[in-house]
TrEMBL record:
It is a lipid-anchor. Keywords: Lipoprotein, Membrane, Palmitate, Signal. This is MetQ/NlpA family ABC transporter substrate-binding protein. The keyword Signal applies. Belongs to the NlpA lipoprotein family. The lineage of its organism: Bacteria, Pseudomonadati, Campylobacterota, Epsilonproteobacteria, Campylobacterales. It comes from Campylobacter corcagiensis. InterPro entries: Lipoprotein_NlpA. GO terms for cellular component: membrane. Its main location: membrane. It is found in: Membrane. Residues 1-20 form the signal peptide.
Amino acid sequence: MKKIIFSLSALAVLSSSLWAEKLTVAATPVPHGEILQAAKDELAKKGFELEVVEFNDYVIPNLATDSGEVDANFFQHEPYLDEFNANKGTKLVKVGSVHLEPMGVYSKKIKDLKELKDKAKVSLPNDPTNESRALDILADAGLIELNDNKLKTPLDITKNPKKLEFIEVEAASVPRTLDDVDIAVINTNFAMNAGFIPLKDSLALESKDSPYANIVVVNSGKENDAKTKALVESLNSDTIKEFINNKYNGAIIPAF
């Protein structure tokens, strides 16, 4: 009797996997890809087989979602999405928040921001929202002062007492500038991908009350699709909350 029960259970699992509908999500590898992998079992229970397509890029995942090459993406925050839609004419929409990645300041040359010399070189992400976010961190650290513009660039610096020199590069490339600059302001996913532990290695870290939670995004009109609902429910589950808290030790914070 036990053998029969086991066989029926195995058959049920096999049948479920054979009939599962594929759900394709574009993501950056760390932590988004890792979090998605942790949600695979939750999605399987809902009848979906998750395929994660990884990119080290902040543009292609949105274009792939817009074109229908993937069902959804998970890599960005809402201010970046708003800016992307405005610039590219896309109609991508947020369907859920998952976590916050506090952006941080890193260096291979100094151990404390008090050691930063005059005319030091600082690398920043060059996309509008992340650059503004990076400058806010530097302002909070007392290195610069800024005007009240919503999206800031180095042109919006009103006081720069150390005469810092700013180098703007694509977000994924910022970690590769560390040999050539004094400090770099790096998105947490790229910092972790480069081997940094944000709580341990950053010289300054974004406040936990930041509005830049990372979100799940789909094409307009797909907000209520079964795939979309299953993805958001799985990423907002207790399983994922526990995974984030245990794996990232506070460097990444659940936003649900």
